[in-house]
Design goal:
There is one protein chain. It contains 13 helices and ten strands. The chain is α/β, with parallel strands linked by helices and about 280 residues long. The protein folds into two domains: about 150 residues, P-loop containing nucleotide triphosphate hydrolases (Rossmann fold); about 70 residues, no CATH class. The strands form two sheets. It has a six-stranded mixed sheet, with helices on both faces. The protein has a four-stranded antiparallel sheet with strand order 2-1-4-5, with helices on one face. Helix 8 links the parallel strand 7 and strand 8. Helix 5 runs parallel beside helix 7. The protein is globular. The model has no long low-confidence stretch (mean pLDDT about 90). The structure holds adenosine-5'-triphosphate and magnesium ion (MG). The site of magnesium ion (MG) has 4 residues, from helix 1. Belongs to the ABC transporter superfamily. Pfam families: ABC_tran.
């Protein structure tokens, strides 16, 4: 099957810099899968997101080599406006996401759809659905700038989902959120996966990645150093050397329980393993 998104030998250097911050990165994303992306600070995760969304090189300029393609078509065949309908992107900083031209959460969610020329009745129906899905009904009439960081993050995500893109890039979507709201975002991710979306999720909370992702990718100093099934990657201690983390329970089991056929990734799995060995 053709990958939905494909990167080949991507190398990127910011304007006025001499060293590339993305260095020969290649990978394919399969449609309908959730990819968790981890790695150290400044390893190039956000830069990679900008490349996949077409913001690099169109907005940031700099020097981009290699090929990015969406369903077999080079990304630079389309401009960033056209790509919005196919690739959604929620920024690491939710403040950047709010358009600044709309006075209410309701209008903010509809804004991208207006730009794509979606029919009014369809637009209203979709906004209503999203307000419920993202638990934003009570905030519908509020000014997006008067929301908390977490609420902004939910509005930003709702505005993206509104455009019904096939690929959704989320750069640390839960960084402003408490544990309950973080779980809520992961439930939405599960819902989006069920709807067939491909999700590229940069996120440090590995316990949740262990539960929700199909695959994990590890970035280190501008390179993609590991990519594979969630279980394979998140039980591999090399992740720690690359500046990533492993689930607490997995680390504990690796240290305390010695060699096992299957290393537990979640508390539930650890519990079963402990019962089995008792
Ligand atoms: N606009 C820019 N101009 C020049 N260098 C930049 C720019 N933006 C980022 N960089 C550099 O590129 C490298 C990768 O940064 P990037 O933000 O992609 O990393 P990251 O993995 O997302 O980090 P974090 O975990 O802190 O979010 C860093 O060394 C950073 O200083
Ligand atoms: Mg980042």
């Amino acid at each position: 099957m053709m990958p939905i998104l494909s990167l080949k030998n991507i190398r990127y250097t910011y304007p006025l810099e001499t060293e590339p911050v993305i260095n020969d990165v290649s990978f394919d994303l399969e449609a309908g899968k959730v990819y968790g992306v981890i790695g150290g600070n400044e390893s190039g995760k956000t830069t990679l997101c900008n490349i996949m969304r077409g913001f690099i090189p169109e907005l940031y300029k700099g020097e981009l080599a290699g090929e990015v393609s969406l369903k077999g078509r080079p990304l630079n065949d389309s401009n960033i406006g056209e790509l919005a309908a196919h690739i959604g992107y929620s920024f690491q900083n939710p403040f950047t996401q709010i358009s600044g031209v709309k006075d209410t959460v309701y209008e903010e969610i509809a804004y991208g759809m207006e730009n794509l020329g979606i029919a009014r009745d369809q637009m209203i129906q979709r906004v209503e659905e999203l307000l419920t899905l993202f638990q934003l009904n009570e905030l519908a009439d509020k000014n997006p700038f008067e929301l908390s960081g977490g609420q902004k993050q939910r509005v930003a995500l709702a505005s993206i989902v509104a455009l019904d893109p096939e690929v959704i890039i989320l750069d640390e979507p839960t960084s402003q959120l408490d544990p309950k709201s973080t779980e809520d975002i992961f439930k939405i991710i599960k819902h989006l996966k069920k709807a067939g979306k491909t999700i590229f999720l940069v996120e440090h909370k590995v316990d949740l990645l262990a539960e929700y992702c199909d695959e994990i990718m590890v970035m280190s100093a501008g390179k993609l150093v590991m990519k594979g099934q969630t279980r394979e990657i998140l039980t591999d201690k090399r992740v720690l050397d690359y500046g990533g983390q492993l689930p607490q329970v997995t680390l504990y089991c690796l240290e305390a329980m010695g060699h096992q056929e299957v290393v537990p990734l979640t508390v539930t799995e650890a519990f079963s393993a402990l019962k089995g060995s008792a």
